[in-house]
Q: What sequence folds into this?
């Protein structure tokens, strides 16, 4: 059943620095508000100079529907008026947002293996999906493969590793594309998500559902790779993140 989007007023509960130029913002969640894992919201702020895009921006909801006390978004901060205004919000500041939107969602009735492919901050809807699956004890086989430029860009690592250590249905794989530019050491996998990376790390890829989220070029590239591997287009879901 579809959940109709609506506009709400809420307040900032806290903000947390989680990675290089990356913050998580926690907003109060109305008790009667629901959404599906993977959906997004539109946040409205009073910004000094309103562009053609207006004063609203879209962000994936990184918190799970099972986390009833808050709505969380995780954002790479850039020099735009909107993101600087967001960064400077004080705790208890009131904001407006409309939600939920989007069809890039986890369907609990699809129990075949899921492969979630994230580029950078594209991990946010997947944190929501994995947290929801764990909290709801769904036991859907999930492999989350995250590609980050440098080690300092990684978000949600400790939480996702913990879930992987406790839940046999969840595999968490990370790769760094620019280890030479990282200030922190990286002993793990390196390189981009390409054809061989998928074949070598996802043994059951031919019978899986794929979700791709990240920058447009990354999403398009991985989409093409999956098609060359013979994945049915109906088993490929995509969400492009712009503005990063």
A:
């Amino acid at each position: 059943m579809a959940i109709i989007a609506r506009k709400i007023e809420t307040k900032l509960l806290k903000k947390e620095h989680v990675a290089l130029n990356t913050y998580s913002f926690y907003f109060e969640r109305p008790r009667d508000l629901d959404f599906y894992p993977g959906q997004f919201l539109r946040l409205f702020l009073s910004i000094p100079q309103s562009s053609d895009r207006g004063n609203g921006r879209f962000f994936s909801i990184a918190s799970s529907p099972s986390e009833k006390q808050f709505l969380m978004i995780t954002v790479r901060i850039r020099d735009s008026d909107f993101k600087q205004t967001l960064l400077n919000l004080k705790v208890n500041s009131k904001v407006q947002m409309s939600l939920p939107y989007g069809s890039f969602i986890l369907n609990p009735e699809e129990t075949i293996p899921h492969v979630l492919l994230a580029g950078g901050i594209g991990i946010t809807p997947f944190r929501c999906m994995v947290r929801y699956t764990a909290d709801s004890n769904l036991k859907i086989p999930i492999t989350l493969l995250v590609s980050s430029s440098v080690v300092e860009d990684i978000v949600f690592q400790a939480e996702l590793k913990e879930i992987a250590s406790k839940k046999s249905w969840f595999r968490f794989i990370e790769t760094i594309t620019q280890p030479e530019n990282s200030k922190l050491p990286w002993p793990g996998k390196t390189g981009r998500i390409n054809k061989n990376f998928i074949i070598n790390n996802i043994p059951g890829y031919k019978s899986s559902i794929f979700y791709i989220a990240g920058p447009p070029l990354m999403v398009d590239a991985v989409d093409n790779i999956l098609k060359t591997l013979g994945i049915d287009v109906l088993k490929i879901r995509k969400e492009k993140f712009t503005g990063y």
Notes: Residues 114-240 form a domain with the Rossmann fold fold (CATH 3.40.50.80). The helical segments are 81-87, 124-136, 157-166, 195-201, 216-228. The chain has a mean pLDDT of 96.
